[in-house]
Amino acid sequence: MLNTSSEPKLDSRKFAAEIMLQESEAIRRASKLLDERFDWAVDRMSSCTGNVIVSGVGKSGLIGKKISATLSSTGTPSHFMHPTEAMHGDLGRVGSKDVAFLLSFSGTTEELLSLAAILRQDSIPIISISKSRDSRLARLSDAALCVGDITEACPYNLAPTASTAAMLALGDALALAVSQRRTFSVEDFQKRHPGGMLGKKLMPVSEVLRFEVGKNVALASGGATVAEILADAERIPRRSGAILIVNQQGKLTGIFTDGDLRRLLAAEGAQVMQRTVDRLMTIDPIHLVSTDLVRDAIQLVREHRVDEIPVVDRNGFPVGILDVQDLVSQKLITD
């Protein structure tokens, strides 16, 4: 039977908050230990023309797999190699242009030490993470990064928790520092994340436009009356809920929405139909350039609460309208 008492829940939340604070403190302390060895590691990884081979055992191995994935997705080719499998043939996956990145909090994991010794004999640069620069693993490394002697967040100081959090944070920091050094761009990121939510957010807005000029978007001049622009708009099937206003050169100067019309009719009645739209439109509306990304559109919607966003080319000529419902249907934002 479900326990509906609030006191145990409060105790659990307090305990969880303490755990998270302990882990964040471990990360903070580890950040104070960054030195010239970290700089060397960034230099070596960013200049690596092969792969970064990440290895570790147990929880450190799981952290290593995640760091390897981060490296790969941010411009640094990487793969994970289990040290035991390395001793049974996987050493053949290591090339002379590779860099090794070995993780062991204690720095005494025998399988990893055996792997480090072999890699060192083969002149493979070794970067490591352990709790101390005096650990056995550190002594086998070219750049020994450390997170310090951490007390685990586990009440019994047994389950790897704070230590793994610090190792992951340090590994991520190294991966992103290398990515920055390699001048990894948004375009590069998109190439590696063509699918899923990340891929959608990095698409140009021009690729998700449902309402396009010349197809189902109405354009009007500022000197036209509301009645005139509505009559023209009615000829467009399945049009958007807005009309784009352009100057004599055809460049965007304003937007007039169905919502604007409803509010004006409620306030002024039918006489509004004879007023010119340049007196009623939103002048110089917030807009996107066709090369902007979907993530930019999401930011605009969240910051300005707009339902229709004009999209123009680099010269200011309208190419379409991005409707907020297009983002909702893609599950990029919630309505």
CATH class of the largest domain: Alpha Beta
CATH superfamily of the largest domain: Glucose-6-phosphate isomerase like protein, domain 1
Q: What fraction of the residues are assigned to beta strands by DSSP?
A: 15-25%
Q: CATH topology of the largest domain, what is it called?
A: Rossmann fold
CATH architecture of the largest domain: 3-Layer(aba) Sandwich
Give the overall silhouette.
Answer: elongated
Distance between the termini: 36 Å
Family: Belongs to the SIS family. GutQ/KpsF subfamily.
GO molecular function: arabinose-5-phosphate isomerase activity; carbohydrate derivative binding; metal ion binding
Binding site for Zn(2+): 82
InterPro entries: CBS_dom, CBS_dom_sf, GutQ/KpsF_isomerases, KdsD/KpsF-type, SIS_dom, SIS_dom_sf, SIS_Kpsf
Summarize the structure.
The record marks 59, 111, 152, 193 as: Catalytically relevant. By secondary structure, this protein is of the alpha/beta class. Helix content is 42%, strand content 16%.
